[in-house]
């Protein structure tokens, strides 16, 4: 069991804040737990960063709607040569975002 898991199992929530972390509820920490957190700080931060990177990767979506693309002219995609009939997001290597003013 990693240091992060151990402190979470004890009923605490740990949030990454820059190069440090915040433990809640801090008022419930014992002296032994405070020493444990200080001695395992680098490990806990590394685990929190890895967890955050995994969560960020899970939420990334590279799909776009055809109506958002500059290649859609008069309802037809000029690069893929088709007329999209629905409004579902797609992955397209030829996608070019519209310029917003």
Give the helices and strands, then pairings.
Elements (H helix, E strand, L loop, with lengths): L2 H7 L3 E5 L2 E5 L6 H9 L1 H19 L12 E2 L2 E2 L24
Antiparallel strand pairs: 1-2, 3-4
Oligomer: single chain
Average pLDDT over all residues:
87
Q: For the report, how would you describe the main beta sheet?
A: 2 strands, antiparallel
How many structural domains?
2
* SSE order: HEEHHEE
- Structural Rg: 23 Å
Strand content: 5-15%
* Spatial ordering of strands, largest sheet: 1-2
Q: Please count the helical segments.
A: 3
- Structural class category: alpha+beta
Give the N-terminus to C-terminus distance in angstroms.
52 Å
Contiguous runs where pLDDT drops below 50 for at least 5 residues: none
Q: Outline, from the CA principal axes?
A: rod-shaped
Q: What's the count of strands? A: 4
Helix content: 25-40%
Q: What report would you give on this structure?
A:
With 101 residues, the protein is α+β, with helices and mostly antiparallel strands. It has 2 domains: 3-59, no CATH class; 62-101, no CATH class. The protein is 35% helix and 14% strand. Strands 1-2 form a two-stranded antiparallel sheet. It has a two-stranded antiparallel sheet with strand order 3-4. The longest helix is centred in the middle third of the chain and has 19 residues, at 41-59. The mean pLDDT is 87.
Summarize the structure.
The chain is α+β, with helices and mostly antiparallel strands. The chain has helices at 3-9, 31-39, 41-59, and strands at residues 13-17, 20-24, 72-73, 76-77.
